[in-house]
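Lecture 7 notes. Example A: sequence first, then its structure tokens.
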Amino acid sequence: MNVLLIALGLMMIFEGIPLFCFPDQLKQLARKLPELENDVLRFIGLVVMIFGLAAVYLGKGVFGND
């Protein structure tokens, strides 16, 4: 449960960074999202998930010896 709370906290931090630092640019991006094809959005989502999985894998390898 501790790891889940840490993961959720980190996710919230990373989700909040663009909102805090670049609110105007984020609004412009949100207006353009409906224009993108579903396949493009799915591909972007897949790439983000793969990077996230790689980060978890690398983090587990580096910090897994605790």
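Example B, a different protein, same format:
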Amino acid sequence: MNDNGSDQPRAGRLGVAGWITLAALAGFLAWAGWYAVHAWNALSGVGISAAGWVFILLGVLFTTGLGAGLMALVFYSNRKDFDR
């Protein structure tokens, strides 16, 4: 029980499910890192043309701009109380 007498668990403490989730996410992160290094080494002989680098840069900029724009809409919607 908490100090206030309620039966709700205290915020800020992880239970067993929280630790299992963190372990699973850490495993996924480790696997993704291993896979990225493996894929990078497998493509060591592949060259990218100037046009390829331009399209990669444009893709990164477009994706970042889209994410920023969507987050701006979320904040705008929250401030104007549209998301009830």
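Note on Example B: The chain has two helices and no strands. The chain has two domains: 1-45, 48-84.
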